[in-house]
Amino acid sequence: MSLSFYQAVQPKVGTTGVSESTSGSIPSASGSGGSAASPPSMVTMLLPFLILVPFLFLSFRRQKKEAAARSSLKKGDRVVTQAGLIGELVDLDERIGKVKIAPGTTVQVLATSLSPFVEASASQKNGEKDLADLKVVAADKK
Q1: Average pLDDT of the chain?
Q2: Top-tier CATH class for 44-117
């Protein structure tokens, strides 16, 4: 029994390159007349799925972290949307958040597009501290 996905079709007698003696016989999968296509191995078939598994894992992990950050938001927090709007959180429910972006201007955004706003000055101070540490280390080596 052959596991090949292709049907063995015999060439017509009289076709160029076909002899009378081989036209009547049926080629077998293990025959020496030609190599039959072997079925793809299980590893080859599962390889695309095995490649996707780490990406899916990392994606679910990131979504979980973002949901935890969203759940920690409360009224009055500074938030940023995925579109880049920065404002103060006025109201937040499961689907929609209201953000005050200017005095008298409140916009409604999807709650999934909100994240806490981290001030750049704190990260710049850390960067300046790291730079100062590098300067000290370089001075000590001299």
Answers
A1: 78
A2: mainly beta
